[in-house]
Amino acid sequence: MTQLIPVLQQQEPLSVKVTTLLEKRTTRNTSGFLADYAAFSIPDRFVIGYGMDYNEVYRDLGPICVINDEGIQKYASSSH
C-alpha cells in the first residue's frame, strides 16, 4: 500500500481511502501504514481461510481461523 497509494494519487482523485477486512493489533507495523477503515481488529496471530493460506493449505477454508502451532508444524514444508 505504501507504494500503491502514491501511484493512485498521481491520477489526482478527490481522495484515496483504503479499506481492509482484517487489521492486526500489533506494534510491528514497520511501514507505518494504517488503513482508513477496518472491518475487524484481530490479535497478532497467523490467520487462514477465506482466501488466506499457510504454505498453500487452507486457502479454501470458508471461515477465517487462527492456525495453531500443530497446524503450522504439520504444514511447515510446502510438500504436504
Tell me the radius of gyration: 16 Å
Report, as a whole number of angstroms, the end-to-end distance: 32 Å
| SSE order, one letter for each helix or strand | HEEEEH
Strand order of the largest sheet: 1-2
Number-wise, the strands total: 4
Structural class: alpha+beta
- Provide the low-confidence segments as ranges: none
The fraction of residues assigned to DSSP E strands is 15-25%
Give average pLDDT, whole number. 91
Main pleated-sheet profile? 2 strands, parallel
Backbone shape: elongated
What is the helix tally? Answer: 2
What is the helix content?
Answer: 10-25%
Structure notes:
The chain is of the alpha+beta class. The chain has two helices and four strands, in the order αββββα. The strands form two sheets. The protein has a two-stranded parallel sheet with strand order 1-2. 2% of the residues are buried. The mean pLDDT is 91.
Comma- or semicolon-separated keywords:
single chain, 80 residues, 4 strands, alpha+beta, two-stranded parallel sheet
Summarize the structure.
The chain is an alpha+beta fold. The protein has helices spanning 4-9, 69-74; strands at 19-25, 37-43, 47-48, 65-66.
Tell me the layout of helices and strands.
Elements: H1 4-9, E1 19-25, E2 37-43, E3 47-48, E4 65-66, H2 69-74
Parallel strand pairs: 1-2
Antiparallel strand pairs: 3-4
